[in-house]
Amino acid sequence: MIPRHTAVSLEVLALALMLGGCSSKDDTPSDITPATAECSRDDHSEPALASALAVGVPGEGYICPAGDLDWYSLTVPATDKLVTVNVSMPVALSPIQPTYAIFPKGPDGEPGTVAAQAPANATGTSLKFTHCVNPGDYYMVVRDQGDDSVDTRNAYSLNISTGPDPDGAEPNNTNATATTLTSGSQTTAFIACRGDEDWYTFDVPPGRTLSLQLSSAVTSYQPTLRLYDAETNLLVEEQNLAGATEPTTIARFEVLPGPGKYYVSVTDDDNEDADPQIPYTLSVEFIVDADPNEPNNVPAEAVVLGNGTVACGAAWSQMFTETGSIGSPGDDDWYRIDLSGCTKGIIEATVEYDTSGLSVADQWAFNAEIQATVTLVRPHTPSACNTDGDCNTLQKTCDGPLDCAGLFDTCLNQGLCSGASVCLPTGTCGANQTQRKYECNPRLNECKPGATPPPPNVAKLASPILGDNVLFLRVTDYQSDGSAPEKLYRLNVRVRQDPDANESNNLPLNLISPSYERSDLFAAAKPIAIHDCAAGDCCGGADVTGSIGYESDVDYFRFPHPCPGSDCTLRMVWNTQAGPVDIAINVYREGGSSWNVAREPDEATMQSAASGTLGGTTATDECFYAYSGHNDDYIVEVRDRFALYDDDVTVRPDSRDWNPDQTYGFCVEKVANSCSVPPCQVYPNGCGQPQ
User: Fold this and answer.
1) Domain 39-163, CATH 3.40.50.150 — does that match?
2) Percent of the chain at pLDDT above 90?
3) What residues form DSSP beta bridges with 209?
4) pLDDT above 80 (res 41)
5) Is the pTM higher than 0.85?
6) Cis (ω within 30 of 0) for the bond into 679?
7) Which class would CATH give 518-687?
8) Rg of the Cα trace of the chain?
9) What is the DSSP string of 487-536?
């Protein structure tokens, strides 16, 4: 019977002959024999032939023939738990990509289950990794990554070192063995070996915000901090993926779902790297939460404004005021208002931070950290849900943003309106309707820190109530990446009926965007009558009245061509009350092109009461007429005229003002059945200046 090691050697020789591992000009035995000899330099291709490996003493070996396995034996002293393996080829262009695995030596002398190995994705000609193992006797095998390459010229170098685990808190690799911490704890420890996880646990009392800080000098791994709840559901993950090139400083505030047990783990980002030389420091602190309404992180915990049902009356309701804080990145503060009589109503909400007590520099720094944001979230009844994940889209098909009016004007690629990704307690998906945030005006140098204070950190919205009997408000930092647990904001909310009898005569958009075609917006225009003053039916006053009751409110009206196929002269009589809204009245053709301007805006902070006329039959009137070549309706647009930026003129910040009690009125009449000359002029193809 052939001894076991002899059989393996013959097998290797047969494989070398089959592959022609060292072939020359022909395949004669004399040409193959030298290569076969070279491939026999280190015959320890099975555990029984393992070469003894002295810790700290460099060794070397060859990977030849293809599929060669080099077995070694080593002993980890009783005082040590770390094994660092360094395997490398002397040249970068070697066909060998070395890898290795370590096995405990069983009582029968056979290798047991793998105790440590190089990462599967570790490639190249040089490997160095540290592993945690128990003291004892081990085998280690070195081979080519793919078991399909050889290198008869270059030997790999192998060096093994062992040492004690520098982390005194071990073992704490799981939540079951987590190290207990208390508020104010500061722990220094190590990610000492590949796969090392350090787990910590603590009990947080009610009314506390958690502060976590992880720091480290430049290290060989990517420090990663994770926070879990009592059921080990992941709540937070923070990483420094540049940990090998720059120090780690992770500071995180977290508003917790509630009191109780929590876990924190410190690891490498993918558990592949480690550094037994560089420690990290973890600090944990429970901070008294200044927010009196926590927990209100989800709609089910929303603070109910008014403590009951709020009615929309003819005037504004009382102001409902709450305070809160953005205690951590991702902190959402939810508020709920239950409504009655608000089939056609208006809601106003303002979130503001008072930073007046801070220095100018600190005010700029605060505004860079936190941008007050308030979002109006309404239920979308057709979209039922069980989880937040059901509400990434709504059950509302769309071809463009205007199909999602009242639903944040957002049509997704799959042809559905975007949802708010939140399932409301009513069992229906939430839809963002309107969102406003702190803004600065770069044209007025309001965005670059300087010697003067920044604009107030405020977000304010005024939106139509679209028949919902419950609405939610979400207060956040704009990108949910800032935190200020020590600074309170103030939320003010009020509701009322919309006194404008002609609503709704526009689309309930989050913003009126210049990119939208006016002809699309005109689809909501309300028909109005035109007086035939030429036949004695003249305007006796303002037939059409309304108000700009909320931000982005634009009122559209349409009237038919008063003299189809011919020219006739028109007149509009208008008036506007005093107030903040800079009311502009314009006339368009239904296709979207501008036709006439009735009221030029003042662009002042407060407008005075005004009245006037557009058109008429006297020489001093403007030429306002219906043209024979037009075959579509005319549209009257009434809106707040927000200031446009101008490079040559200093302008006030872009504003969209509103005031439901500041009314306007107008009346349109035909004053002549022909082109009145003057004020108009007849051209060969018609009245005025034909289009």
Assistant:
1) no
2) 77
3) 255, 287
4) no
5) no
6) yes
7) mainly beta
8) 39
9) --EEEEEEEEE---TT---S---SS--TTS-HHHHGGGPEE---EEGGGT
